[in-house]
Amino acid sequence: MLRIQNLSKTYPSGTQALKNVSFDVKDGEFMVVIGLSGSGKSTLLRCINRLIEPTEGKIFWDDLDITAAPPADLRRIRRKIGMVFQQFNLVKRSTVLTNVLSGRLGYVNPWTSLLGIWSQEDRQHAIQALERVGIADKAGSRADALSGGQQQRVGIARALMQDPKLILADEPVASLDPVLSHSILQYLEQLNKEGITVICSLHFLDLVHRYATRVVALKDGVKVFEGAAREIDRAKFKEIYGEEAQEVRAASL
Amino acid sequence: MPNETVNSRPVVRSGIASALLPGLGQILLGERYRGAGILLGFLLILATTLWYGKPVWYVSPLLIWLWNVWDAVSLAGGRKRSILLPLFFGLAAAYGIGWQVVEIDFSKADMDRAMAILRPMVRPDFVQTRREVNQMWVPVQVPCSSEPPAARREDAGRIATVIPDCGGVGETLIVTVSGMWPNAGMNIFWQNPIGNPLMLGEGEITMLTLTSDENGSITTTIRVPTTALVAAPDPTLPQFHRIYFEQYRPTGGYELSFIGSEVLKGALATIAMALLATGLAMVFAVPLSFLAARNLMSGNPLTYAVYVVVRTLLNILRSIESLIIAIVFVVIVGLGPFAGMLALALHSVAALGKLYSEVIEGIDPGPIEAIRATGANWLQVVRYAVIPQIIPPFTAFTIYRWDINVRSATVIGLVGGGGIGFLLIELIRVNNMRGVSAVFIAIAVIVIALDYISAKLRERLV
C-alpha cells in the first residue's frame, strides 16, 4: 500500500504545485489522477519516486518511508517503480533493445553496465518484454524510427524490465490518437490485473471511466475529489475542471 | 471643406519639423522607429559624404532630406511613402564612394603579365617523364699547388681528363670526356668542394649544354668560374673541385617530379596538422564545453560565474582568426607545421567548445528523467541518457572542424605554419608557377575530397 500524507511541493520559483495532498493507494488498484494542465498531476507522480523532492509531507510504501530514503535505498525503491511518460522519454538514437535493457540498470552490476555489457538473461528478458507489447521485431531499430504508439510500448517494456510492483504513468496517452490510447491503456490494464499497482494521470474522462478503479482529482495542487469514477457527475466535473469546461470524449469506441 | 483646414496645420508642422531635423516630423506623428531610422540613415550618409569630401556626392543626403520632408508631409496626410527611394539614394552614394575608395582600375590589368603566370600554370609540375642519367665527373685542383695530381678519372669505361691538371680562377681549361652516350645532349657544370653547382655557360648563369659525337666523346674549353673560391675559407689553399658531365634519356613512362613529391609531402603534412589539431582541440574542448553549458552551470552563482568566464574566454578566442594565432606561434616555436598545428588547435578549442556546449544545452531532459526513474546511479544516467545524446553530434562537429582545419591549414602555411601552404609561398617567391599550379590542384583535391568525406560521415551520424 502507498500512503501519501500531507504532500506539498513549492518550486524555487515560488509556484506551489501541491498543497497538502493526502490519499492512499491500495495494492492492485488502477488509480487515475485527473485535473487540468498545471494542476500538479506530474509533480505528484514524480514526488512518489522522488524525481522531484517534495517540500513537505511523507510518502510511505508498505511502511517504508520513501521521502526519508538515503540515495542507495532510494535507487532500490525506484527500481521497483516503473515509470511511463507522456513524451515516452526514450533515448532516440539508441536501439529499442538498449532502451528496454536500460530498465534493468537498477539491478545489474553498475560497472559492467557502463561498458554496455548485458547478460544473456537480461537480453532474453528484454525480448520477452518487447514480445508482450508486440514489437519484438523492432528490437534492432533506432527508437526514433518507431511511431508514437510503438515508442510508448517500448516505454512500457522498459518499465516491465524493472519487474515493478508499481507503475507511474504520467499522461501516457496524451501524445497519442484515441485508438492508440486504448491499446496502450489496455497493456497497463493487463499489467494491473497481473497484480501491479498503477497510478496514472489522464485527460479524457471517458478513458477515466473505462480504466480507473479509483480517481483522485487535483485542482491548483489541492485534492478536490477522491472516489470511484462513476461518482464524477456533471457538478463534480465542473468543480474539477472549472465552469467553462466542456467534456471532450476521446472517441466513442 | 472644413476638414482640410483642420488637417493643414499638422501637415505644415511636421513638414517644418522634418526640414529642421530629418525624422523629427515622423517622430511627432508617432512613427518613432521610422523617424529614428530616417535620422540615423541621414546622419550616416551625411557623415560619409562629408568625410569623403567630393561635392558630387552631397546630392545624396540632400535628396534624402528632401524625401524626408515629403514623407513627413505625406504622413501627416495619412500616407506612408516607400523607403525604397531614400534607400536607393543612400546606396548609390555608398557604392559610388566605395568604387572610388577601392581604386577600381581595370586599365591596370596587364595581359602579358597575366599570361606569363598563366602559361606555365597550364602545365602543373607534378609528374615528369621517367629518364635515366649517365653521370661522370673529374677532379681538378684550384688554385694550383706546386705538384698537382693528374686531373683524370676513369669509371665504367668512361674517361674524363682536364688539361692542365689545375687552374686559377678565370683560367681556361681543356676538358675531354669519352665513353658517354653517343649523339646525345650533355650538361657540363662545376661543383665546388662544398657541393654547390656553378654554371659554366654564358655569363656563368646558364647551363653549358653540348652534344656528344658518335663515339660518345666531347672536348671543350671552359673557364674556372669566377665564384669558384667564394666559399673557400682560404683562397690560396689548393682544393679539389669537380667538373660534372650529365646525360639524360627517357626510359618511357612517368614519375613524380621533385616538386610533385614535395606537394604530396606538403599535402600529407597539412592533413596531419589538421588531424592532430582537431584531436588536441577535442581533448580540451570536451571538458570546457560542460563548463560552458548554461543548463548545467546555472544552478548556483558560483557555477554560473564559471560559465560566464569560460563562455567569454571561448568567444574571445574564437574571434581571433587562426592565421593570426599562427603568426604568434611561429614566433614562439619557430617556422613549421608545429606552429600551425598549435594555432589551429587553439582556435578549434574555442570553436568546438562552443558547438559542444550548445549540444549539451540542447539535450532532451526526458531520457535523463526516465533513466533516473529506473534506479540507475549517476554514472549510469550519464552513460545511458546523456552520452548517447551527445556522442553523435560531438563526432559530427569534430569531423566538420577537421574539414575546416584542413582548409585553414593550407592558408596557415602562408605565414610559416608549415604544410602545403608553406610550399606554396616558397614556390611563389621563386616564381615557379608550374609548381604553384601543382599546389593549387593538390589543395583543390584535398578540400573537395575532405568536404565529401566529412559530409558523408556526418550524414551517417545525425
What coarse outline of chain A follows from CA principal-axis ratios?
globular
State the helicity of chain B in percent bands.
55-70%
Contiguous low-pLDDT stretches of chain B (5 residues minimum) are 1-6
Under the CATH scheme, which architecture of the largest domain in chain B would be assigned?
Orthogonal Bundle
Beta-strand proportion of chain A: 15-25%
Q: Any idea of the CATH class of the largest domain in chain A?
A: Alpha Beta
Q: How many strand segments of chain A?
A: 10
Question: Helix fraction of chain A?
Answer: 25-40%
Q: How far is the N terminus from the C terminus of chain B?
A: 70 Å
What CATH first level of the largest domain in chain B would be assigned? Answer: Mainly Alpha
Overall tally of structural domains of chain B? 3
Q: What is the average of the pLDDT values of chain B?
A: 89
Question: What is the tally of beta strands of chain B?
Answer: 9
Radius of gyration of chain B: 37 Å
Structural class of chain B: alpha+beta
| CATH fold descriptor of the largest domain in chain A | Rossmann fold
Written description of the protein model:
- The complex is a heterodimer of chains A (253) and B (462).
- Chain A has 253 residues and is an alpha/beta fold.
- Chain A folds into two domains: 1-80 and 198-246, 3-Layer(aba) Sandwich (Rossmann fold); 81-163, 3-Layer(aba) Sandwich (Rossmann fold), CATH 3.40.50.300.
- Chain A has helices at 41-48, 71-78, 96-101, 110-114, 120-132, 148-161, 178-193, 205-211, 234-241, and strands at residues 2-10, 16-25, 30-34, 56-61, 64-65, 81-84, 166-170, 197-201, 214-219, 222-227.
- A six-stranded mixed beta sheet of chain A has the order 6-7-8-3-9-10, with helices on both faces. In chain A, strands 2-1-4-5 form a four-stranded antiparallel beta sheet, covered by helices on one side.
- The longest helix of chain A is centred in the last third of the chain and has 16 residues, at 178-193.
- Chain A starts with a strand and ends in a 12-residue tail after the last helix.
- The model of chain A has no long low-confidence stretch (mean pLDDT 90).
- With 462 residues, chain B is α+β, with helices and mostly antiparallel strands.
- Chain B folds into three domains: 2-101, no CATH class; 129-254, Immunoglobulin-like, CATH 2.60.40; 258-461, MetI-like (MetI-like fold, Orthogonal Bundle), CATH 1.10.3720.10.
- Helix content of chain B is 58%, strand content 15%.
- Chain B is built from 15 helices and nine strands.
- Chain B has helices at 2-20, 24-28, 32-52, 59-76, 84-101, 111-121, 258-291, 294-297, 301-319, 322-333, 337-361, 365-373, 378-412, 420-429, 433-461; strands at residues 127-142, 152-155, 158-163, 172-178, 185-191, 197-198, 208-211, 218-223, 239-256.
- In chain B, the strands form two sheets. In chain B, strands 1, 5, 6, 7 and 9 form a five-stranded antiparallel beta sheet that branches. Chain B has a four-stranded antiparallel beta sheet with strand order 2-3-4-8, with no helix packed on it.
- In chain B, a hairpin with an 8-residue loop joins β3 and β4 (172-178).
- The model of chain B is unreliable at 1-6 (pLDDT under 50).
- The chains are: A alpha/beta (253), B alpha+beta (462).
- Chain A binds chain B through residues 49, 51, 75-83, 85, 87-94, 98, 102-107, 110, 113-114, 116, 155, 158, 161-162, 168, and chain B through 364, 366-367, 369-377, 379-380, 383-385, 388-389, 392.
